[in-house]
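[retry 2/3] Protein kinase domain-containing protein: previous attempt timed out, resubmitting with same input.
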Amino acid sequence: MAMMTSVLGKTEFVVGGKYRLMRKIGSGSFGDIYLGINISNGE
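[retry 2/3] Protein kinase domain-containing protein: success.
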């Protein structure tokens, strides 16, 4: 499950309640690739 929230005008996209998407790092025929950060430990 993915969720999008807006905090102080900045949109955050959270996947599965565990990962925050930071930025798009690439794309190809299979889809888009994003850099994600684990919300619980920051890695």
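[retry 2/3] Protein kinase domain-containing protein: The longest strand covers residues 19-28.
[retry 2/3] clearing retry counter.
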